[in-house]
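Hi, here's the filled form for the chain we discussed.

Project: internal
Contact: R.S.
Residues: 252
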Amino acid sequence: MDRWIHESARIGPGTEMGYGVVIEEGVEVGRDCLIGHNVVIRRDTRIGDGVRIDDGAVLGKFPSKGAISVLRPDPDLPPLEVGEGCIIGACAVIYRGAVLEPRVFVADLATVRERTTVGEGTIVGRGVTVENRCRVGRFCKLETECYITAYSVLEDWVFVAPQVTTTNDKFLGRTKERLQHFRGVTVRRGGRIGAGAVVLPGVEVGEDALVAAGAVVTKDVPPRKVVKGVPAAVWKDVPEEQLLENQGWEGV
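And the returned structure, exactly as it came back:
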């Protein structure tokens, strides 16, 4: 079968692989995993038991630096860690230095960058990008093609709707002063952001707050409030029946 597996790689019993798989040196794959066609697993990556990796995915990719990029290379990245029961979609790219806790779902064409942690049970939807040095909590839902900018924090049970854009650079790439002020966004526990909203650098969305679709959020959102508009302003309280504490979900 047309595949290449380094002699130092350790593959657990019951794991199945498709055609064209490449597994580099030092990789550890757990028991009963399913690895699709043309998957590439870069060196030292650690994969838990029962993980499914669909066709064309790349795991453990090293970040690269553009010719005019201001970001410095990060040569000391730890290996990628993929927890048990994770599912990685077709053509997804997960970078070295990331950590996926158990039962994370990363959909087709999504990207999770280096030094980012994604908490247990979280869904990273189709075409989503989670940039470097982010912390995403447990049981979050990041829907299709939303963008989570670098240095952001999303706590547990956060919902981010399709095509939401978060930002971290108030200077839009001009002047060296910007290098001192990079700040991602923070979404506290149970916060929700509606489709197509834009959240500006350093903004905090409070616990159980809701940002309406299409809003442009320029300042912090108070807990349990709904904001809407351009720029976003407080509209009303989040309805009691929508509060996280009233959902009856296990682990809330």
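Let me know if anything looks off before we file it.
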